[in-house]
Design goal:
245 residues, alpha/beta, five-stranded parallel β-sheet, three-stranded mixed β-sheet, elongated, binds ligand 9D3
């Protein structure tokens, strides 16, 4: 059996969307994974196909009904983890993508409105996941992003060359700058060391640049890196507290 994604959404036409045009789309056509988008509204029971209602306790906005979401869940649920995409979830990490890729697949629940009744979240032991601290209009684009992050990790989706590059310090740091021909573009020269053919010097320059960019842009990643690794000058974080005499 291949890796299976089921998506519960009020906008099933958004799937596979842009994924069909990429690496993930080729893998989908090749049968490496499968995608099933289910319209939650198909599980409403009233004449108007209502999926939401006013919040108990009052307040603005509407809440998705637990009975409708549960019926949609029952139509797909098996032993796969259920991920509810929500702005209040834990931030999605590469480690989560790796964990999902190693399993049978995922059931992705996309919220709309203010949220989903808490009881159905708890009843199904859902993992609540966010893709970052900005406000979107629903969980569908986050679901597509999660799928893109996971599917590229499935066996046979990416070439060995690309997957092999994610190792050692490079996976903990932002990328160093890249250059290609021409060596002089509108008077902007490629850094001389990259033209030198001196492989050790090139590797050292790239690592120093990756460290500089990470320190400037992502103090959170820099802290994690310096707690675990050697700087390009060979010192460690603990050397800062025990300077050489
Ligand atoms: C007034 C409180 N809002 C929370 C910030 C309510 C709300 C806003 C937007 C509830 C849902 C949404 C729609 N967003 C998602 O469903 C969503 C999301 C996001 O907005 N940002 C980052 N990750 C995600 S995952 C799902």
């Amino acid at each position: 059996m291949s890796w299976r994604a089921s998506v519960l959404t009020l906008f099933p036409e958004m799937f596979p969307g842009p994924l069909a045009l990429s690496l993930a789309g080729r893998a989908l056509a090749a049968g490496v994974w499968s995608l099933q988008a289910t319209n939650i509204r198909d599980f409403a029971t009233d004449r108007h196909r209502t999926v939401d209602d006013a919040p108990f306790g009052g307040g603005a906005g509407m809440v998705m009904r637990p009975d409708v979401v549960d019926a949609a869940m029952a139509s797909v649920a098996d032993r796969r983890p259920v991920v509810f995409l929500t702005p209040r979830g834990r931030p999605l990490r590469q480690a989560d993508a790796q964990r999902y890729a190693a399993g049978l697949g995922v059931v992705l629940l996309c919220g709309r409105y203010e949220g989903i009744d808490q009881r159905v979240i708890e009843a199904h032991g859902m993992e609540e996941v966010s893709i970052g601290d900005y406000v979107l209009s629903g969980g569908e684009l986050p679901a597509l992003i999660l799928l893109d992050a996971v599917v590229r990790l499935l066996p046979g989706v990416m070439g060995a060359a690309e997957s092999a590059t994610e190792e050692s310090f490079s996976e903990q740091l932002l990328e160093y700058p890249h250059y290609t021909r021409p060596a002089d573009w509108h008077g902007r020269r490629v850094p001389e060391v990259l033209l030198s053919g001196h492989h050790a010097a090139i590797a050292a320059w790239r690592r120093a640049e990756a460290e500089r960019i990470t320190r400037e842009r992502r103090p959170d990643l820099w802290d994690a890196y310096t707690s675990a690794t050697r700087y390009s000058d060979g010192r460690t974080k603990s050397d800062e507290h025990h300077p050489a005499l």
